[in-house]
Design brief:
Blueprint (H helix, E strand, L loop, with lengths): L1 E11 L2 E7 L4 E5 L6 H9 L24 E8 L2 E12 L2 E8 L5 H10 L2 E4 L11 H13 L5 H20 L5 H36 L9 E6 L9 H10 L1 H7 L10 E6 L3 E2 L5 H22 L5 E4 L8 H13 L4 E5 L13 E4 L3
Parallel strand pairs: 3-12, 3-13, 7-11, 11-12
Antiparallel strand pairs: 1-2, 1-4, 4-5, 5-6, 8-9, 9-10
Helix pairs in contact: 3-5, 4-5, 5-6, 5-8, 8-9
Length: 361
């Protein structure tokens, strides 16, 4: 069980100096657009690997005309309290995020933190998830996998690095065939592992959504699957490698790599009839909330992981179906929630005790 007890910002985004404590269950932040609600969620999310919920460059997190930022947090992990410090450090004019757990930034401390903290996230642009780009949907799925496997980003980064290395080799005048063969072998192994984990994640979600229909009146029947003509051929490593080798001339001419999990799309079939891209933004939001509900159920009940929920600008397009799913999450799971919206009245449907924060400029 992980809870954020309090947080302090110094020179972070629009905050010069900001402090607040949080409720163990439900925290609702409201205020005008631009007042800093999302910045608070971003600051919370920076305790995990990566660049936070907005994937921003570290330098852009620093308040204008300041040299660095500092975030202090008090976390409760399995009923033990830990002090967290997150700040910037420069090395050869490059900014780097540093995290210290009780003053310690060793690998063991960071591994403990990464294994303890998990986030599930809703962002406003997810209301158009199935009308956005395939890369956005892939990132959405990858973030769900990351919520249960904190080493998944290492796999993704290695795969992307190998693709870049292959593209550079193909564009060079003197190609090192041995090195190219080795890079392509790595791409095959990494790519097949990504395919496997993505398919496993979608299978988990489909099972969870089907099981939860027994006690939840969902608006839709939803089935998620990967759309990838290459992967659907049940490719093995030998055939994968052969296709990579055969596509060298094409990839050299046009750039990039035309096959692999970086070309996949994730689609949602609604009621066994049509693609979710045909739905309204409010209805797409319903499916996203259903997915997050299913993933949370999997994490809590099967992986023994208690994620922290970050819902940014969740108040819009909350029809009765979306409110029902949101309330089910809040009532079903003993975890910590952070919700933001422009008006306190948007959350009048919340029956459980909640702590409200009026965020002002």
């Amino acid at each position: 069980m992980v809870k954020i007890k309090n947080i302090e910002f110094y020179n972070f985004r629009n905050f010069k100096n900001f402090k607040t404590s949080f409720d163990d269950k439900l925290n609702i932040l409201f205020g005008n657009n631009g007042c800093g609600k999302t910045n608070i969620l971003e600051g919370i999310s920076l305790v995990a690997k990566g660049k936070g919920i907005r994937n921003a460059n570290i330098i852009n997190l620093i308040k204008k005309q300041e040299d660095n930022f500092l975030i202090k947090k008090n976390l409760e992990i399995q009923k033990n309290e830990f002090n967290i410090e997150i700040f910037t450090e420069t090395n050869k004019e490059k900014f780097k995020k540093i995290i210290k757990l009780n003053g310690d930034s060793s690998k063991d401390s960071l591994n403990f933190l990464n294994q303890s903290v998990s986030f599930l996230i809703f962002l406003p642009e997810m209301e158009r998830l199935f009308q956005s780009s395939p890369s956005y949907r892939r990132n959405f799925l990858d973030r769900l996998i990351f919520s249960s496997r904190n080493d998944y980003n290492i796999l993704i980064n290695k795969y992307k690095k190998s693709l870049i290395e292959r593209n550079k080799l193909l564009q060079s005048y003197n190609i090192d065939d041995d090195w190219l063969n080795r890079i392509e072998s790595d791409i095959c192994l990494l790519g097949l592992e990504i395919y496997k984990l993505r398919n496993l994640q979608l299978n988990i979600l489909n099972i969870e959504l089907n099981n939860m229909k027994k006690d939840h009146n969902f608006q839709f029947d939803v089935k998620l699957k990967i759309k990838d003509d290459f992967e659907n051929t049940e490719i093995n490593s030998e055939e994968y490698l052969t296709k990579l080798i055969n596509s060298r001339a094409y990839d050299k001419q046009f750039g990039g790599t035309k096959i692999g999990p970086h070309k996949s799309d994730i689609i949602s079939i609604v009621n066994n009839e049509f693609d979710a891209s045909l739905l309204s933004t409010g209805q797409q939001k319903t499916i996203v909330l259903m997915i997050l509900l299913g993933q949370c159920n999997h994490l809590v009940n099967h992986k023994k992981i208690n994620p922290i929920f970050l819902f940014d600008e969740i108040g819009s397009h909350l029809d009765k179906y979306n409110r029902q799913i949101l309330l089910d999450m809040i009532n079903r799971f003993d975890i910590q929630f952070f919700l933001t919206g422009t008006d306190k009245n948007l959350f009048s449907f919340v029956s459980t005790n909640a702590k409200f924060y009026n965020i002002t400029d």
